[in-house]
Sequence to fold (297 residues):
Amino acid sequence: MLTPQPVGTVYTAADPAGTAGASTASGVSWAAIFAGGVTASAISIILIILGTGIGLASVSPWAGAGVSPTTFTVLAAIWLIVVQWVSSAFGGYMAGRLRTKWTGVHTDEVFFRDTAHGFLAWALATLIAVGVISSMTTSGIGAGVKAASNADTTMVSNRYFVDMLFRQNVNANGTPVTPASGSAAMVTGMSDQQTRSEAATILTEGAANGGNIPAADNAYLTQLVSARTGMSPADAQARVNDVLGQEQAAAVKAKQVANATRKATSGAMIYTFISMLIGAFIASVAGAIGGRLRDNY
Fold:
């Protein structure tokens, strides 16, 4: 067992301040901390790469294949804890075991310093690991935040819906219907590109307002469709309503995807926070264990 070192501050008549024999050496061994931090960060990166490979192998774009999103999230959280546990244990132990032996220092002070060395090694490893994988993390957070904030205004391109509005109308026998001259006169001076641009603006506004557009815009859009396709006003109105409904459904789906991304990103950040707290504790304990073995041998 470790022999206690009850060497503390000694107060005597000749040295009332207890400064005799005080060491001027620093209580921090940065070389040992750096070695522990590099060790922990290297192990973290290796395990993260391994976990990424396993995770990609476990998921599938096909319905019913691969693990479920809930299972994947739980496994990812467990893996983050494993990564922190293993890397922090190695890093903290290296920092405690490689530090310079302190002489003339009380046992309690030695324990505190070793614990602090383990914690500092973990902190350094965290900074190094974050620096290496910052692009990946930033991209993930940015995607979640951007998706959540823009879900109300950023939809699937409405070019598809504009094309749906102005598809050529055909008869039952498949013959294209030629627009009546009277209806075509309504858009005199407007090119096809201008007409589509106005329709796209109305659709975008409707998507932003939950699929609802003012009655005047609805009537105008109906007239544009009737004029460009040769459809009767009733048929043109039905097409406008159908396209608006489909666009709203696409907007709802986009919001659902954005919300799922937000939840996944939030969960990942919380699990990362918990795993890092565990890593800090493990590194501190490992530092104390490594320092104790260093003094024994």
Observations:
- The radius of gyration is 34 Å.
- Residues 1-12, 14-22, 151-156, 181-186 have pLDDT under 50 and may be disordered.
- The CA atoms of residues 163 and 196 lie 8 Å apart.
